[in-house]
Amino acid sequence: MTATVDTRTISVPGATLTYDVHPAVGDRPPLFVFGSPMEAEAFGTLRGHFADRTVITYDPRGAGRSTVDDPTSQSTPLEHATDLQAVLDATGLGEIDVFATSGGAVNALVWVAAHRPNVRVLVAHEPPATQFVPDREIVEAVVNDIADTYQAAGEGPAMAKFIALVSHEGPFPGDYLDAPAPDPAMFGMSAEDDGSRTSPLLGQNMRTCCPFVHDVDALTAAPTRIVVAAGAASGEQFAARAARALATTGGFEQVVLPGDHAGFLGGEYGQVGEPDAFADALHGVLDS
Questions:
Q1: How is 26-51 classified by DSSP, letter by letter?
Q2: What contacts 279, CB < 8 A, 6 or more positions away?
Q3: C-alpha triplet 247, 34, 228: angle, nearest 5°
Q4: pLDDT tens, 71-130?
Q5: What local confidence, expressed as pLDDT, does residue 26 receive?
Q6: 263, 31 in Cβ contact below 8 A?
Q7: Domains in the chain: boundaries
Q8: Distance (Å, rounded) from C-alpha 181 to C-alpha 142?
Q9: pLDDT tens by residue, 10-48
Q10: Label partner for 105 (CA 20 to 30 A): which of 33, 181, 224, 286?
């Protein structure tokens, strides 16, 4: 008999969070999987590969089923870290393992550094942390330009710039922002502005996630085993470069997981990575 997912809500300062507990029978630690601002639904395929563990998923503040009191406000990694601790406390599950990707990996690192949660293993997959790359100043300028574009012109033009950012190979040249902006139509998006400014990615997290300054000393002193992962197909894209540089700076374990930044997806958001191979590799990391 398949256990029914237990969906719950909790109130935290400035937000109401929705999270899910997918129960399983076994002696493996529960697994908390998340991104940011990626919602719980993005991890349906990955979760299915961990039927031997209770799996926790959640929607970050302002995304999906989770709300914020002010949807036009910015959310910081420190706030997300406090939210993660609140979710873990609410589950009552004790020691857990964590797989966190992209902005979620940034938030998870802050969580471990600031809260010392009862996390046995953290696999931080491609955290886009500008702090650790040599082209930090230009990347942060690009990030701010995307946020400015969103406020001035809306989602289509800003998302086109975001896609160009995350797919760019290698360090960003100093004159990157002098080039013509990409056409949203190239990515199947409209350039028209619908007037909304509540995107959890472009409005709430764009300026705060990548430039966050991590406390490497606190991370290395934490009892959590930190494993930093980059995608085998991510090449020299920013998030993969940042992951490798973070691992080198902190002396953390480095692993390569199949696929690219979205290697775990199995059709969610219309994207298919290498979910079977990705899950097998993640099992190996968690069980080693």
A1: SSSPPEEEE-SS--GGGGHHHHHT-T
A2: 46, 49, 50, 264
A3: 10
A4: 989 999 999 999 999 999 999 999 999 999 999 999 999 999 999 999 999 999 999 999
A5: 84
A6: no
A7: 6-130+212-287, 136-205
A8: 11
A9: 999 999 999 999 999 888 999 999 999 999 999 999 999
A10: 181
The residue assigned the tokens 């420190």 is 78
Q: How far apart are CA 195 and CA 218, in angstroms?
A: 42
Spatial separation of the C-alpha atoms in residues 210 and 220, rounded to whole Å:
20
Question: Using CA atoms, how far apart are residues 274 and 126, in angstroms rounded to an integer?
Answer: 16
CATH superfamily of domain region 6-130+212-287: Alpha/Beta hydrolase fold, catalytic domain (3.40.50.1820)
From CA 115, how far away is CA 106, in angstroms rounded?
A: 14
Which position has the token pair 């609140």?
Answer: 86
